[in-house]
Amino acid sequence: MKNEQTLIIRGGRLIDGPADLLVQDDLIKEVGKPGMAAPPEARTVQAKGKLLHPGLVNAHMHGHGNLGKGMGDRWTLELLLTAGPWITGNRSIEDKHLTTLIGAAEMGLKGCTACYDLTVEFPTPSAEGLEAAGRAYREVGMRAVLAPMVADISFFEAIPGLMEALPAPLQKEVERLRLAPYRTSLENIRKALHGWKFDRDEVRPAVAPTIPLHCSDDFMVGCGNLAREYGIGLHTHVSESKVQAVVGLRKYGKTLTAHMDALGLIGPDFTVAHGVWLDDDDMKRLGERGASVAHNPGSNMRLGSGLADMRRMLERGVNVGIGTDGANCSDNLNMYEAMRIASLVSKVQGPDWQRWITTAEVLEAATAGSARVLGFGDKIGRLAPGYKADVVFLDLENINWIPLNDPTNALVHTEDGSAVHSVMIGGKMVVENRRLLHVDLAKLAREAESARERLEKLNRENKNLYQRLEPIVGSFCPGLAKAPYHINRFGASQGFY
Ligand SMILES: [Zn+2]
Fold it and tell me: For tag attachment on the chain, is the N or C end more exposed, with fewer CB atoms within 10 Å?
């Protein structure tokens, strides 16, 4: 959408010092000294007492997870997958819009201006569901990459021996969790891609075969072909949990990354979500192909998946972005928190402090690195001429910034989102004076509560099924995770991790 205007943002300070920003339409035209000349028609945006930073970019989240916020506590990834039908089941198109809107509203309020949303519809994606999700981002004013998350093998079929470990009546019940045949899902994605109505600079599509073990090779290759044909991203959860890494080796006779490489899927538009259990060869492979990892350290700790080694990824040339993961496994979509955890997770992995990730590296990953993950690398993630005017205004009178010693350290280690005063996306304000301009939060709360109540009833049986499966999955999968899995990096084969 064209946004014809000229703005001059005056009086603010950037991370490296005071500067004014000239915005033409939706782009930053010039970054100059305070008081720089501006065309007479330019409207002034006052930024006195504000720190301006590029909008944070969430490299990995799930819009469908927001209605499931806070539903679980002690969940491994495998228990979360088992809980899927309970926490995400029976959604109407309006629910799909609502759950996405809750996340978009949260991200906007917390300084995040673009995200990569892997969104699920059971048993197969639909053009209408994706349209409903895309509409939610446009209502808030955010950018998003929207990827239908698909599979053709259920979790119970994906883990060898798990189905047989279930008593016969439970086996019968999980049978109904069967997914659509992959050809149906590919057809539906193609339909959605073909009729895509959004401006691709605002909401663009991608494809997300959810987890390699949950997708037949034909399906993975079909997704890869679609991505190539339409010039869009391919994003999948790889080596997130140790169970995945162990089962991958058994199933493919090689690591999950090596297997996907053999299928010809890894290239510059390919993103590995998590990559906790990648080995050095995997990272090298990703680096050589120009691929990315979406690093979600909060989720990795929350689900007990382990600690991903961002330093080694960077050393092997992997582009690293930072994400929050879904609110059903990480409970918030706060990119400031994700940055802080990314820094701390690096520091807790070993005593060699010179290898720890710096705050500048974390900030780079959460802006420019994530932007590249989204395929927006030359458009967002920096406050520089030619980039989109996606700007966060932080209030320097907020307690987080009193006193202001080092802006980068404070942004990564101190800020928690509470100093976000205003947020501009593409030259338009979407948050002003701590309020979303286009979403009524009170109305959103009412709608969410009524959906929550209705879905709780509709999913009662699914919850009951989860409760009966929990003890079995909860002992079978950790058993697999105790299998030796020696990967060539510090700490990886010590104990559980
Ligand atoms: Zn995820």
Answer: N
